[in-house]
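Anyone? Bumping this.
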Amino acid sequence: MVSKLPRKETSRKPNMREAILAAAEELFSVNGFNAVSVRDIAQAAGANPGSVTYHFKTKDGLLLEIYQRHCAPMNLRRSELLAAAKRIRDPQDRLEAIVRAYVLPAFSSGSDLAGGGARFTRLRATMSAEGNEVARRIIAQTFDETSHAFIDAICECLPAVPRTEIVWRSHFLLGALYYTLVTPERVSRLSRGDADGSDAGEAIEHLVQATVASFQAPALDRPELARPRPATPPKARANPGPVVPR
Amino acid sequence: MVSKLPRKETSRKPNMREAILAAAEELFSVNGFNAVSVRDIAQAAGANPGSVTYHFKTKDGLLLEIYQRHCAPMNLRRSELLAAAKRIRDPQDRLEAIVRAYVLPAFSSGSDLAGGGARFTRLRATMSAEGNEVARRIIAQTFDETSHAFIDAICECLPAVPRTEIVWRSHFLLGALYYTLVTPERVSRLSRGDADGSDAGEAIEHLVQATVASFQAPALDRPELARPRPATPPKARANPGPVVPR
DNA sequence: CATTTGTTTGTACTATTGTACAAATAAGTC
DNA sequence: GACTTATTTGTACAATAGTACAAACAAATG
């Protein structure tokens, strides 16, 4: 990654810039952007506050750099996996492979290696919830393209399901993914110890299985699929309960 | 809306306390806890900064009050809907009604009325992502009980699916729910306008349908269901791709 | 060696933060 | 009316925020 090869791999200069990035990534992903001060980051990285300013100019610049560091490699990884998945003949198997290709890089825990990684995904989740402006811009730019590619690939597996439906369901997938990375301990708690929310392997398998099933469900049989919707509220089959709010 | 009927419907004293709560709820849910200052809240509520301190003592106290204002009514509403759903005979229909009972109060948009409401749910999502300590304490206390009730009810509909599996899938449901409230515009964007992520009715229907399908999926057919897992990686049926990370 | 370049340190500045508190005002009670 | 209580205002304070910048230091090149 670093352009010019370092003269000797001395331990005395462990690349402060990298340490700051790693510390910031960790702190941001756990506490959010605003709760973490530049001084917190510097301390966690064993650096001087001024050093952060030197390398990244501003706090926003630091966040930006974290994104730019991860986005390209992660999307590349996803594309590779997606391409491999698309080569599978059987639509059923292909669908599962596609979902796996989407989920896997998001969970991979390469410390700071190019595969994306759970920490970065968690950071994205947190920034998304905080409504971070820097993050919002980058996400729409960088991820929508990949998202569309996955949606298209899934659509091909499920010709009966309209694209809009796939969009919704893959949106749910991303939400589930994010939330699992943000609050893994909740799974452990609610399962009374039978599951470990922090176990990436476990989470991936359950998530893939559940998501594939949701994708394969028949589309909403409401005649008003698209935007203009009639006044009749969607009638739940056997639920006499209250009507949709608003 | 205002609880105690005001002496005369003068516009001069519109219950400042309530206005502050509403403003804080809105601001927190959109920007997170840390990005919003007490002064921001006061200004949005048309109040004086000191007034916030007077009513809620601290900023944490304000957040606490928001939770306490909503938790009880919302869980009550959920319990009612759950009880009604459980009376449905057919397991298939019952499952859908249960899921709907879980989802509906979270989306209801009663301005600040007792039904819970999308704004409060969004706030919970944001606090959860930020790792807010005040929120974390209340959530584990207040919501786990309801969550267990729902999980149990779902288990009864699906005797073939182990409880752990249900826990995972309902966790995914909550994540999807949260994310849809946090980033509704993403759905609109990715669907190229065919769907409206901010339309609660639309979101609920898609979410319920997808979730019910995911619940009905057969459990992972891995012999190592519980915690101790052997070394053999879970073999995806047709995916020759990379093994589970870490 | 001297010089240049890149990095780290220390400190300082201004803005904003949460909170405290006294004074002012409104509301309610007798 | 006078008196008490509740609320709102205005201002102040200490702490912390992000950032700027000069000095110190390190490394490499000539």
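Late reply, but here is one note on the structure posted above: Chain A touches chain B through 96 residues (CB under 8 Å).
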